[in-house]
Amino acid sequence: QVQLVESGGGVVQPGGSLRLSCAASGFTFSTYGMHWVRQAPGKGLEWVTFIGYDGSDKYYTDSVKGRFTISRDNSKHTLYLQMNGLRAEDTAVYYCAKNPPYSRGYHFDYWGQGTLVTVSS
Amino acid sequence: EIVMTQSPATLSVSPGERATLSCRASQNVISNLAWYQQKPGQAPRLLIYGASTRATGIPARFSGSGSGTEFTLTISSLQSEDFAVYYCQQYSKWPPITFGQGTRLEIK
Fold this sequence. Notes:
The complex is a heterodimer. Chain A contains no helices and 11 strands. Chain A is mostly beta strands. In chain A, strands 2, 4, 5, 6, 9, 10 and 11 form a 7-stranded mixed beta sheet that branches. In chain A, strands 1-3-8-7 form a 4-stranded antiparallel beta sheet, with no helix packed on it. The N and C termini of chain A lie far apart (40 Å). Chain B is mainly β. In chain B, strands 2, 4, 5, 6, 9, 10 and 11 form a 7-stranded mixed beta sheet that branches. Chain B has a 4-stranded antiparallel beta sheet with strand order 1-3-8-7, with no helix packed on it.
């Protein structure tokens, strides 16, 4: 069965950096696009970034452009999110999510359990 | 950016009754719309994609309809496990992919 397990969250000071990881199993990781979606405490869902199956396509929401970088290592079945210049408004649970086959569009058919990032001094 | 607006913000319904949740897009998203269910402390779960196609393992009491800018999620006979927050999401024109603000479905 599909499993996505995030790690790397924690408490960081404003302006600091953090790298999140998402270990994937139960599917052919190298053939699917992947996303990061976040949820601030008590708030709704916000899409953050997408990476294509081979890493050649990357898209970001405007608020993280130039600060966050998505990447993947298909040999390790792992997705990453490098977060630099963190701000208080980046505080959220970060979910990695799998995209279904591209023929079905761009949404999220499986989600990890999430990892909490807290930006605070 | 396409803005997704869900209504109502909170819906109170008795178990066994029907629930109807609405989602409106600020532009035509054709049928590129998904619905998710999220329970407290859990990740969201995909219910519907393509506006009306149930995801794997989703019970038949969940149905989606609509196209263009107006969409509906219907739960035909509410079970106790259905009380949760529901989000719609468009993937017609992106980035960014955008979500509605959510509808909380609570027990009446």
